[in-house]
Amino acid sequence: MKNRFLAGIFLVSSATLCLELSLTRYFSISQQYHFAFLVVSIAFMGYGASGSFLSLFKAHESIDRDKFLSWSSLLYSLTILATFFLCNLIPFDFIKLSWDKGQIAFVLLYYLLLSIPFFFAGLTIAFAISRASNLVNRIYFSDLLGAGTGTLLVLVVFLPRGDRGVILLISFLALLSSFLFAWGRSIRFKALLASLMAVEIVLFILAPSWLSFRISPYKALPVALKYPQAKHLLTRWNAISRVDILESSAIRHAPGMSLMYDKELPPQLGLTTDGDGLSAITRFDSSQDPSLEFLSYLPASLAYSLVETPRVLIIEPKGGLDVLSAHYFNASSIKVIERNPLTLSLLRKELAGPSGNLYHLNKIQTVSAYSRTALNQDKGTYDLIVFSLTDVFGASGTGLQGFSENYLYTVESFDRILDRLSPDGLVSMTLYLLPPPRQEIKILATWIEALEKSGLDPFARVIAIRSWGTISYFIKKSPFSPQDIPGLKEFAARNLFDLVHYPGIKAEEVNLHNMLDQPVYYNLTLQLLSPLKREELYRDYLFQIEPSTDNRPFFFNFFKLTQLKTTYTVLGQKWLPFLQGEYLVSLLLIQSALIAFVLILLPLIVLRRRDPRKKKVASRTFFYFGLIGMAFMFVEIIFIQ
Q1: Distance (Å, rounded) from C-alpha 81 to C-alpha 60?
Q2: Same-domain check for residues 331 and 434
Q3: Which range of residues forms the domain containing residue 307?
Q4: What is the distance in angstroms between the CA of the first residue and the CA of the last residue of the chain?
Q5: CA-based nearest residue to 371, from 423, 318, 426
Q6: What pLDDT is attached to residue 397?
């Protein structure tokens, strides 16, 4: 009996951690990654509320232990399914937050609904500890062992049925725990549990659509599928992503392609990750395929006229356009770093034919890892390192990445990349223009400071060109030679690209083809290349463009509180771009603090008023466990980093 009791605790804890991690995937897919971190606070909210409930209502002390645990774990299982179903019906839309204040109420509803399963999970664990204090060490052991197992389970629960199976599997674990707690109870109750298990097994086999994660209609996948003759081809899952392949007339990916190219692009398939970030997979038969001529009209192709038959490293190409370009321009070897192993698997298997068996070429080596990790471990040197621009729909002014840590776009990371270049090696990086300029300028500032950190003069090592919609930077380890410049000028003139910077550029050479009111990129580049003017620019510029570092890796956080009013005016009096980074976090923190006060602290205040003798003890207990919890979170965050 003791073993069944501890096994039930183990299953509840496993289900809870697996649910918590699966909900982070749910929010990343259904909305934006911003809301994934809410799951931790939601889980703590439910657990805390369960403790307050047990403290307030003493009637549970007279209830049979196994009866209480079997019912609480059963309710835990049922509320997992019920709250997920209800959350999928909530018409919350992140984009509407900027003009529809009612959307904040939907966030509150998410909090309240999703905290219910965690309430019953916490109720089960807390009640078990209170009623079996003689086994507290074994209960803690089973609880922690189950939690660790749950974090491992999330690696596999998405594989059998994807999103349609994961919630059922977690609910089934909770049902099993209820069955173990009810071992000595009536046949009728165990028959109820067996019937529910049978229903969940049938649902798992049938995988009904109502179990799917709802995707925001503003994400790239649903948008692309609304185009005429669009077709969804397949969906694959792993623990870290959902990858979809589709056909759509929306997919026309050739970033910054010269307006001098007047032919059709080859057919392209679309690839999305978590329903967003649409990337293109270009169909071709061989590198001699005439339809690949468009690659010569891309701004990024300038790199292959500056270095011949290079050894190339390509960072996160997703659909593989830059890999195809490297092959087309006769790279001697190509190494690909792609963080998602599922993307590489699809390109090698199901999509090998449409992508010309590109990833089966002997000269192509692939590494599945986070880019910064792979770069830190890489001991090789390369003639060309390419940062891929993969998003078909281009830059967005919404600033949705503001809270995202990016350890690839830091001074220390760029310094490491410079170390991986051969003596005459080159970095190529193309970005979409995002007026008013911010990410394009911040990237350049980061490269300039990385060059200076390595003791290199950036003025002689930077070339920049601009198309109608992109800007491309070419950063060289050694100074660009006078022999490089005529080819650069000819390439730009032939493709109607504008020169932004090269060593010795003159003001009359810029802003000739894709004309702006002012040569803003040329002017900003000159300011960044001057150490004195650079500091003034950092201080006075509308946006935060000072380079990110490993200690503050929020590259996409551009907004300054001191420039809030001016920025609001410049961005067309729209609040959506501000719903990022600390602005969004502050809003959600206030909301979660209010909910925590109502569900956790307020009941404890009521309890203290009932019995004033507990006031002093309660205060000590609150601060004691509060400090332990704070220390726990600090340690957890450090290990996350």
Answers
A1: 26
A2: yes
A3: 269-567
A4: 42
A5: 318
A6: 41
